[in-house]
Design brief:
This protein is of the alpha+beta class. It has four helices and six strands; from the N terminus they run βαββααβββα.
């Protein structure tokens, strides 16, 4: 397996935040996951893990990184409103030319997992794996 870089923002204790798994554990679920983030309910990044392939494919400016958690939480809030009429939200999927971005709410921990994957991956498969990781944690 290629090396994985991991950073836990300000060395926060995820279990102290009520989250019992890390972005690295999400990344290790499948080779197609290039980057994983765990966000709290306010959009703060609790942990992030990245494969080298992500950095080779994408350049994410610092100005966007600073807003990404907030943008994700706003999108989740909108989707949760729709879920009141459609049934529980399982994941949000954004498809781009070379990737998919999955927003996966984890109600058990009041958090959201963002998984950036290769475009060919089955989003339902990744969602199921992340939900199972949260359930086991």
């Amino acid at each position: 397996m290629p090396p994985i870089t991991q950073r836990i923002e300000q060395k926060r204790n995820l279990k102290g935040k009520g989250v019992a798994f890390t972005a690295r554990q999400v990344l290790e679920l499948d080779e197609s996951i290039l980057r994983a983030l765990v966000l709290d309910s306010r959009g703060n990044v609790l942990s992030i893990a990245t494969r080298p392939a992500f950095k080779k494919r994408f350049t994410v400016p610092e100005s966007f990184r600073q807003k990404a958690g907030t943008i994700s939480i706003v999108a989740l809030g909108i989707a949760q409103e729709v879920a009141k009429h459609m049934g529980p939200l399982q994941s949000m999927v954004y498809v781009y030319p070379n990737s998919r971005v999955l927003g996966i709410p984890i109600p058990k921990y009041d958090c959201e997992v963002i998984a950036i994957t290769t475009r060919a991956v089955d989003g339902g498969y990744v969602t199921d794996r992340v939900v199972e990781l949260a359930r086991r944690s």
